[in-house]
Amino acid sequence: MKKSYTFLLAFAAFAACRQQPQQSMAVATDTPPQHINKFSDATLRELYTLQDERKTAELLNFLNHPKPQYRREAALAFASVQDTLAIPQLLTSLSDTSTSIRMAAAYALGQIGHKKAQQPIIRHLQQEQRPTVQAEALEALGKLADSGGLNFLVNYQAANETAQAGQAWGLYRAGLRQISSAQAVEKAVQWLTESKSYEVRLAAAHLLARTPKLDLTPYRQQLTTVVTSDESADVRMAVAQAFSKVNARDKASLLSGIVQSDPDYRVRLSAIRSMAGLEFEDIDEAILAGLTDQNINTAVATAEFLQANHADVDSKALRTALAQVEDGRVRAGLIWVILRNSPDKAKLSQEYQQLYLRTENPYDKAHLLKALSADYSNHQFIAKETFAATQPVIGTYGMEALAAMRQQGDFPKALEQNFADIFKQGIASGDVSLAGLAAGVIRNPKLNFRKAYRDHAFLTEAQQKLVLPRDMETNIELQKTIDYLSGKEQSETPQNPFTHPIDWQFVQTIHPDQQVVIETEKGTITLELFVEDAPGSVANFVELVNKQFFDGLYFHRVVPNFVAQGGDKRGDGWGSSDYSIRSEFAPLHYREGYVGMASAGKDTESNQWFITHSPTPHLDGRYTIFAKVVEGMEVVHKLEVGDKISQVNLILRAKTR
């Protein structure tokens, strides 16, 4: 975690920055200031360049460097490089005299995630005395453990809560990989109900929430106590999510009570999501409360819940709720359910098509286009609007709507060829989102598109027109679909070429506590950048700020109680730049308000970024963390899809001594 400082605002600098947003506090010069951050050290710059270039052999030499600082940085470099060739030397580094190096080596081994490190890590844990190293090694073990490693994790006797937190996170990491056991679940429940530290309880709660295929019914009473009384909303929301795996007669009343009483919206919406499978009449009051919740994220999550669980929903109740809803995304969700469940779809479809045509906001139009997908007879209207759209978000949402229609269980067989033609048109459109989305549907094995496309040269032709690395996400989608239609095993994922080295002269001008102000329609958000953990990502972000790249863009993706995402010129999530940067994985953790680089896979980042609503540990070590929110988190929790970013500026804060 980052050090916290007390800052004073340098008002004159801030005012100048606001008046002239094209000017930055961090400006590269021929003679960069000395010792602003750790990269004034030439050896560190060399080491990070090797990391950026993924040069394993040269990095391995640094693991034997006489200075501990460089040995540690070299070990951490392999958390991003993730080359199995480094495993033997990293295992040797587990015996380094420096605690920080042993921790770094353990973290890197977990990031590489190869099972051949399992037994050496276990042997090391049997002799390691430092709780901080124990914790890092235990969590790393969870990232690569088999059933034997899991057994060691479950039975490990942690000497204190630092090590115990690592043990809990290790069990969670194993659970994400579907490596779990009844003993692991029982241990997690035990930790939750005892007076354990926040870290232990948080890990245990996420283990229960995210480990697949668990039956938590035997622990209903213990989980009820935690979800209604734990002091941490982070823990309560994860346990509320875990209730999706509980089968009990009082489940509806319990979750309904949480929806209508918990002070934190994230817990309320987690409870709604766990109501899947319950009778609508047993939860209708909670659902209506969710639709009018004071936080828009809860209302959105409720509308999404109704779409996913629409079968027994009372449409009359939703029509009443629809009159009270102002948000376009929530309104579209309700319209979808009403239309889907209506016996008179033709009349309603005409009404909602007219509503779509009268709507001017592109995001509201996009949501309504999705709503129309509840009636198969709307497919021609949706396709027409998709291919005629002048705003990318409308076309993208239209193709998503068509893809969702085709994958419904009751899809009419008579429309199969129509949709095959639509998806082929999407591939040939030249639009990256339409092609990428269509490709994803075509390779769904349940839909058997191999019969529809005897000749799939159109996919190769579309792939050849892409511009790399800008269109890498679509390139990956097309390649997967080509492999599927060819009957081949999936090819190795295409890799982005290394085209954007780190500008070290520029990096050296960025303060370790550099802050950024994001001004939005909902208020101001202030970030602190982590240049010493993610120099390439921070430099890229600051350069884009200096170019006013983000000014006037939108938050194009908001997933309730997950992330708010921005930085896309297209406004639909498919926009990238003409270059990509490398992933940078430091031992940081996604908690509330952490900022990460969006990507289509390792080393594909460019200009999109996201802010987390709450702890999201499943993102750790997979998406670069380059900043955190230090002011304005209440604004982040209010953001909606389509909220505009008016401007983004760097500000200077001076540390008090």
UniProtKB/TrEMBL annotation:
Keywords: Isomerase, Rotamase, Signal. Residues 519-640 form the PPIase cyclophilin-type domain. One of its GO terms (biological process) is protein folding. GO terms for molecular function: peptidyl-prolyl cis-trans isomerase activity. InterPro entries: ARM-like, ARM-type_fold, Cyclophilin-like_dom_sf, Cyclophilin-type_PPIase_CS, Cyclophilin-type_PPIase_dom, Cyclophilin_A-like, HEAT_type_2, PBS_lyase_HEAT. Its EC number is 5.2.1.8. The keyword Signal applies. SMART domains: EZ_HEAT. Residues 1-18 form the signal peptide. The keyword Signal applies. PANTHER family: PEPTIDYL-PROLYL CIS-TRANS ISOMERASE-RELATED, PEPTIDYLPROLYL ISOMERASE DOMAIN AND WD REPEAT-CONTAINING PROTEIN 1. Belongs to the cyclophilin-type PPIase family. This is peptidylprolyl isomerase.
